[in-house]
Design brief:
Elements (H helix, E strand, L loop, with lengths): L3 E4 L5 E6 L5 E8 L13 H8 L3 E2 L2 E2 H10 L3 E6 L4 E8 L3 H13 L5 H19 L2 H13 L13 H6 L2 H11 L5 E7 L3 H12 L18 E5 L5 E9 L8 H12 L5 H9 L3 E10 L4 E10 L3 H18 L2 H17 L4 H15 L5 H9 L3 H12 L4 E5 L8
Helix pairs in contact: 1-7, 3-8, 9-12, 9-15, 10-11, 11-15, 12-14
Length: 409
């Protein structure tokens, strides 16, 4: 069935995609603000807000929030990204009203108790410590920091010890009041969902919000740089990135397919040369990441310390060779993988809900999957090579964790 878009009088967007043959639904509130929108000195604030709203909201404490959704057999969750925040519930179709009520309470009437904030700081500090103890996790924070040095887009989503200690309950309230504005909110639902019921619930729970938009994030620019975390682990984590493109750039699909050819699967050049032919690593892959005005082309590899220098040199060489010699057969394979990945990923209500909302946030409209597939199919060998070459011509951001990177002999 066709997805449909509505807007309330205050500017809040409501999107619905009924899915035949299912008995469940997913509903989520998507805010177009995330870690990159945080004030100076308060890195991690968006993530802390996401934590704190679950400590009590509306007429429920933390236990009641958990029990009420689980009594109905559902689940509720949230996550913070660098450019958006999501509050999402999954449930049986008859419990749509409960899901919307809980989500509305979380973002509109959270308790944000100061004593709870002090306790939750310890939880987030524990999460931060766990991340720093995971080399295959922290290497990406290091890479992001080098790619966007000195900019909000380069700060960790979790923040750091100093910023986490600085948060006050007033900071949390100000974030919600100024950032969760209806002009930047999408209430989306997919699955066995009644469109009229969703619209009535949206109006009842969000219709009285004053119109407005959150302050815009400062523009970001790829800088490049290097960070080497020399703590010793069994393996070294290696990551390199070059400047990519924003998600509205005409080259976005060409660069994504270039990354797929270079390191998107077992048949990719990086996997075959670094792992299969040379045995230098167990895990290696490439990806492209886009934001509104910028992006990156990246490669990550985990290798034994004595093989890391050779693996790193080979990663760079394979990227350059792919930009020079990407073939039609490789591009066709990458297109097939991308089409299948898109369509397979849309087979569940949660994935459909997320895709629906993010398309609206990124493009301002519902983009049918067929349109995306057509854009993928339109990429040529020349445009894929050009997108890769343009990325590789820019500065590199490099991050390593696990020892000292030595040059290959």
């Amino acid at each position: 069935m066709t997805a449909r878009l509505h807007r309330l009088g205050n500017g809040l967007t409501v999107a619905v995609e009924p899915v035949p043959g299912v008995e469940t639904l997913a509903v989520g509130l998507y805010a177009d603000v995330g870690a990159r929108h945080e004030p100076a000195g308060l890195a991690g604030l968006a993530h802390m807000v996401e934590h704190m709203v679950f400590k009590g909201a509306g007429n429920r404490d933390a236990r009641a929030i958990a029990e009420d959704i689980e009594d109905a057999g559902g689940s509720i969750n949230a996550w913070t990204a660098r450019d958006h925040t999501v509050f999402n519930a999954r449930m049986l179709a008859d419990d749509l009203a409960l899901g919307v009520e809980l989500i509305a309470d979380l973002v509109r009437t959270p308790h944000l108790d100061a004593a709870e904030l002090d306790r939750e700081r310890q939880v987030v500090l524990s999460e931060l410590g766990e991340s720093r103890d995971a080399p295959d996790d922290i290497v990406f924070d290091h890479l992001q920091a080098q790619a966007y040095a000195g900019q909000p887009l380069g700060t960790p989503v979790l923040g750091d010890e100093a910023s986490i200690a600085a948060f006050t309950d007033a900071d949390l309230r100000d974030w919600i009041a100024t950032r969760y504005r209806p002009g930047g909110l999408v209430l989306a639902a997919a699955g066995k969902v009644d469109e009229d019921a969703l619209l009535k619930l949206a109006e009842a729970r969000f219709g009285d919000l004053a119109p407005g938009h959150a302050p815009a994030a400062s523009a970001a620019a790829f800088t490049g740089g290097a960070h080497h975390d020399r703590r010793r682990f069994d393996q070294m984590q290696l990551a390199i990135a070059h400047p990519g493109v924003g998600y509205r750039d005409p080259a976005v699909h060409a660069l994504s397919l270039f990354a797929q050819v270079a390191g998107g699967g077992m048949s990719s050049r990086l996997f075959q040369q670094v792992r299969e032919e040379r045995g230098l690593a167990y895990s290696i892959y490439a990806w492209s990441q886009s934001y509104a005005e910028t992006g990156m082309l990246g490669v990550h590899c985990a290798a034994a310390r004595d093989a890391a220098g050779e693996a790193f040199a080979l990663m760079q060489r394979v990227l350059a060779e792919t930009a020079e010699g990407l073939t039609q057969a490789e591009l066709d394979r990458a297109k097939a993988q991308s089409r299948a990945g898109l369509l397979m990923g849309l087979e569940g209500p949660s994935a459909r809900c997320d895709h629906l909302a993010r398309q609206i946030q990124v493009h301002g409209r519902i983009v049918p999957p067929a349109e995306t597939v057509a854009a993928i199919d339109a990429v040529t060998v020349d445009t894929a090579r050009a997108a890769g070459s343009a990325a590789l011509a820019g500065n590199a951001a490099i991050a390593t964790v696990g020892g000292t990177l030595r040059k290959a002999a």
